[in-house]
Write a structure and sequence with these properties.
By secondary structure, the chain is an alpha/beta fold. The protein is 42% helix and 13% strand. The strands form 3 sheets. It has a 10-stranded mixed β-sheet with strand order 5-6-4-3-7-1-8-13-2-14, with helices on both faces. The protein has a two-stranded antiparallel sheet with strand order 9-12. Helix 3 (51-65) packs across helix 16. Residues 1-16 and 483-489 have low confidence and may be disordered.
């Protein structure tokens, strides 16, 4: 029997009948919310987070820090609803972040690499455009560039997520009141700061300015590109003094948005979780997951005190396939490895910089002992030397042949964590919800249905046009579109 792409996707979607949202329009959602629907929505995204990421983080914090991860603890609370999300895009069963966020932002499956637009050029109405037209105040907070795919997916229409200078300018007309993240390189060239200031935004460029920021409109940009990994921030007083945490940015955004007569919509993205997973960089991924959950705590505590706010916590897709493996007699070595995660002092970039491109085996051993608390054997150190010299013994692997992947494989002897690739993966991701309307996320929900949930909250009745994969392929074939491949790390 032969299977077409339609057959495969259809079979996948057939499993989604368990979620209430999958069969509801935004108007039906509004009715299902009852007499006291939520007034506000906080949508928290751990970009690229596989379920194993959260579970490993939970075990590490239990064994090393004496308490569960915030998200894991939250999942057990009686006022919380948990579910799963299916994450496909229009072009693939494996989505990129642009198509994933635009699915939430338009209610339509989008081609990978594009934002709120169909392959034939049909522009869709974005969530923030629709919400702001109803008087809803909107905010986007991220640890990536402000113009990156996930925040942009709620607000901007463009045929390429790579047009970050264009995206940065388009926020001015997208109905977004608070924007906080990185990406100075995409605001400076066109003097966008002056344009934002002229439109009533308070522009802040460092942590102290951000923490003091007040007003209805705020633009906070804290790095030329993406914000640094949390583990590097934690080990640098200079970075910590300049760059606010995700939790701090979330607090500033909530302070600005709260009290809106028609409610508010806030997306909070832990974007560097994905970057750590793409790099197979366990320390980077781990500590940014913890930082994301600290921001989630800010959101949930606000919602519990407010009583009118729906908080949705999820991921756009999984990435890297990280998994903690049993090792040693009775698998005791796994627990010891977890406790060792507390010794990590940096992400891969500074680690590699300290080693250099042509290190000696002794230097490799010393750097790993100092920065990761790992005692490499002579054979392991020799392999790392080869990897750093672009002669990885794993280079024949299309998924694990990179320098980062090779380094992660060696580290796996000590961390007990293995990876499947440096790419996004296909799996259902976790969903946790708190507040009025949370019951609607129970079960397995299509990513596009969260648009109906959020528009239902704000009493917006809107349906964007859609396109099938087959029609999209015909359009692209007729136009002879030559699309440059997106980098695998996005």
């Amino acid at each position: 029997m032969q299977f077409s792409r339609r057959t495969i996707l259809g079979a996948g979607l057939a499993t989604l009948s368990g979620s209430l949202l999958n069969s509801m329009s935004s108007a039906q959602v509004r009715n299902a919310l009852g007499n006291k629907p939520p007034k506000n929505v906080i949508f928290c995204v751990a970009d690229g987070m596989a379920s194993q990421t959260m579970s490993m983080c939970d075990v590490f914090q239990r064994t090393g820090l004496g308490h569960p991860s915030y998200w894991a603890g939250l999942m057990n609370e009686p006022y919380v609803v948990n579910g799963l999300q299916a994450t496909r895009s229009l072009s693939s069963v494996v989505t990129d972040s642009a198509a994933a966020s635009a699915a939430w932002g338009s209610g339509v499956h989008i081609w990978n690499g594009q934002l709120n637009i169909l392959p034939d050029g049909t522009e869709l109405d974005s969530l923030t455009k629709l919400a702001s037209a109803k008087g809803v105040r909107c905010g986007l907070v991220t640890t990536t560039t402000m113009s990156h795919a996930t925040p942009a997916g709620f607000a901007v229409v463009t045929d390429s997520r790579g047009k970050e200078r264009e995206i940065s300018a388009k926020y001015l007309d997208a109905g977004v009141d608070v924007l906080m993240g990185g990406g100075d390189a995409f605001f400076t060239p066109d003097d966008l700061y002056s344009k934002y200031a002229a439109n009533g935004y308070r522009v802040v460029k460092n942590r102290s300015e951000a923490l003091a920021a007040t007003g209805q409109k705020i633009l906070g940009i804290f790095d030329s590109s993406h914000l640094p990994f949390t583990i590097d921030r934690n080990n640098s007083t200079e970075i910590a003094a300049k760059v606010p945490t995700l939790a701090e940015m979330a607090s500033v955004a909530l302070r600005s948005l709260k009290g809106s007569p028609n409610g508010f919509l806030l997306q909070i993205e832990g974007g560097k979780v994905d970057h750590g997973a793409h790099a197979n960089d366990l320390a980077a991924m781990f500590y940014d997951q913890i930082a994301f959950e600290e921001a989630v705590k800010v959101a949930v505590e606000f919602a519990l005190a407010d009583g009118e706010t729906l908080v949705i916590i999820t991921s756009d897709h999984a990435c890297g396939g990280p998994s903690l493996n049993g090792d040693g007699d009775e698998y005791f070595d796994t627990t010891a490895a977890l406790e060792g995660f507390a010794n990590f002092k940096c992400s891969f970039a500074p680690l590699m910089s300290l080693m250099g491109s042509r290190p000696t085996t002794d230097h490799v051993v010393d750097v790993h002992k100092e920065m990761m608390g790992i005692e490499l054997s002579k054979e392991e150190a020799e392999t790392v030397v080869a990897i750093m010299g672009n002669n990885s013994p794993f280079k024949a692997s299309t998924l694990m042949g990179s320098r980062n992947a090779g380094l992660a494989l060696i580290h796996g002897n000590h961390t007990k964590v293995g990876w499947t690739s440096g790419n996004h993966t296909h799996e259902h991701v976790l969903v946790t919800a708190v507040g009025p309307g949370s019951h609607l996320v129970a079960g397995l929900t299509q990513n596009i249905r969260f648009f109906d949930l959020m528009t239902g909250v704000f009493d917006i009745t809107h349906k964007n046009p859609t396109m099938s994969f087959e029609d999209a392929m015909r359009v692209r074939a007729r136009a002879s579109v030559q699309v440059e491949s997106e980098p695998h790390w996005v």
